[in-house]
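Quarterly update from the structural biology core.
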Amino acid sequence: MSRLLTPSSPNGHEGGAPNAEPPSTTPSAATAASDGVLATKLHIPLTRPGLVVRPQLTDRLTQGTAGAIVLVCAPAGFGKTALLADWARRDPRPVAWLSLDDADNDPARFWRHVAAALDRVCPGVAGRVAALLQGLQPTSFEAVVTTLVNELAGVAEEVVLVLDDYHPIQAPQVHQSLGFLLEHQPTSLRLVLASRADPPLPLARLRARGQLAELRQRDLRFTPQEATALLRTAVGPELPAAAVAVLADRTEGWVAGLQLAALSLQGRTDMTGFVAGFSGSHRYMLDYLAEEVLDRQPEPLRAFLLETSVLERLSGPLCAAVTGRTDSQQLLEQVERVNLFLVPLDEERRWWRYRHLFADPLRARLAREQPERLPGLHRAAAAWCERHGLADEAVRHALAAGDAAWAARLIERNVDGRILRGEGATVWRWLQALPAELVRSRPRLCLTQAIAAITVGQLEAAESLLADAERALAGGGDQSEEPYEPSVGRAASLVANLPAAIALQHAAVAHLRGDAKRTVTFARQAAAELDVADWMLDSVTRWYLAVAEWLHGRLGEAERAFVAAISGWRAAGHRTLAAWGYHYLGQVQRAQGRLGAAFETYRQALAAVGEPSGPGLQLTGIACVGMAEVAYQRNELDSAVRYADEGIALCRQFAYVQPLATGLATLAWIRQVRGDQAGAVEAMRQAEQVKLSPAVVGLLNSLPALRARLALAHGQVADAAHWIQECGLDADDEPSYPREREYLVLVRVLLAQQAPWGAETRSCSLSVVLVEQTAEPVASEHTALVVTDDDWTGRWIR
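Predicted structure, tokenized:
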């Protein structure tokens, strides 16, 4: 079982009721447009006319790829991308290229794009990684990296991955997971990274090991000979040698400065006079030369450059929508022909981008000269991007246009798709860009934040956000000029039907608190609001009604409900939902003492996972933890360790962290039984670091009770008794099923505090007359007969 993936809770995975029509998966025009933009990120930039070939540097790049990583680090305008592109096209090895931008700070998006780049040279990688990233965003991405490592380990020839423009990446999760790749880098992979600043990676360690090759600013400066070649090619042989020497000296070999100087010199008669006035720092030089270049263009082209500078990526249709010009495609091709810093992003010349050093002065000049034009340009860009499914660009332009309400509507429509793709960081970035009062006034945005809080067990925060959503809904916050149309379609949406969705998230909070009655109440309230089109919400509603049976302690009813749900989901082909159902079914069967049935259920969960590229992989880690628990209860300790180790390794990647804590606590008890008390304490310490919410009921959060039991096993009775006191438990209580684990610890504490067997026991309404340890399938691991003093009637509980 080497399959790796992140799970999602019932709140977040795809699927639906057995009798519902699944949402359509037919690619839309919007999807195609989005895929087209992704393709531009994977395109090795074309060689520009007049490129100065730099064989010394390309040789150093080739030699450097003998190690783990080559870092090309220099400020903007030193020709990093041009050098790497020229080298990549000459190198005989397969090269996967990825151009990064701010949006790649979402770690799920980053690794999806890395996989897409590698898929071009190692087909199949993208599908496997896409499966790992479905559902709620994991807490780390080591499973994704492990999958990439495993895929590339079987590749015979070397593969080069180029990450261009890494400097916009600020997300710690991206840096951490890329560091993990460097630590476990397969011999077939060579990494080349271009950045304006040193990335927070273990560069010192790699340097000490001789695994890091570096090209820095001093290496990338143009030599006098290279500067002469560039200037003479661009301007002509009539440029005086003295002028060439002055420009090379004053630009200090800065490629962008030389290129702008060359553009400024074209067509001038007094070249010597121009060069004499050429001075200043890179920043001032850039502004000066950009204006020189811009002012010398024909007015139609100059206006086009200014108006389209608001765009990160340019295409003929997009520029036409922004400028209103019908000749946008021809103008883009003209801009490229005259070398005005336009970089083609595909082979077909459909997408371009301006060099950043040129775009920034253009934008500054537009803002200075025509500030009134900016909102309209951004509004036109946002409308075009919205129509073509480019949600991230549409949100950015809507915000730049000053229309936060429009941006909020765009976010609402795309929330489901981003959650299902695991791009929670993108959703969070969007919400952070909106005014807080606007978010609170829109129920779907409040609901989205509540779903995120529930996923990590922040129940108090979730309840507050749900209250905000209800207030906003009651105040008409769901009304807009346009009907709500989620990007994934209504059938797959978690937020389309607001009354049902809010009620359902209340049910989610109630079930985590162990409140069976409120779980049923809210689930039925959601069901009453459902429409026939609400496929996803109907599925989750049925789910919580089944879970409520378990919370009530009606194990037979719960088992039948889960079996029925699993059967329906399997028949409909929804393997992720079926695998999640097996997880809950296994716990119910273990509660009945049917360990053999539970183990077989976990095996079926793994079978439901299907092929490595299937969405059901998300439950693999949880199933392994369940098998470890069963093997431990059967005293099959070798198997238990094996399952626990694999389950823990997988569960470390999950956003839903409860299985990780359970796996570590189970490992602690395995070590304890084997006599390794220090190992048991260490495993439990790691489990405690998971930081589960104390508000989650013991039935769903076994860690506190298992930790207290371990304290008892180590003779720390006072610590266990203190925990019981903090829980508010008392021997006179009427035990409730969702808190059964805590009450069993109370039983053990009372036993430890009482006199040896045969002595007088203290009088209380909750007395223990027998505790039996067993590994038989007919009973759970620990069974206790609890009786009351008044009539000596009792029941067996775990």
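The chain is about 60% helix and 5% strand.
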